[in-house]
Task: structure prediction
Amino acid sequence: MAVPKQRTSRARRDKRRAQHKAPKARTNECPRCHSPRLPHRVCPTCGTYAGREVISHEVAEAPRAEPEQ
Result:
């Protein structure tokens, strides 16, 4: 069995590991609202997936200021 003669230094080890980073997440364009979304997932903006509405999104209204009496 092969055994290393010298211990690998922290600098050499970390230089090698510097290339082991996660790639940037890919995004697709939603065909309905054209906002970016992750592939094979429901669109967070309009709530559609594969051409049909999966999540019903209601437009949030701004809270109205009640008149003082």
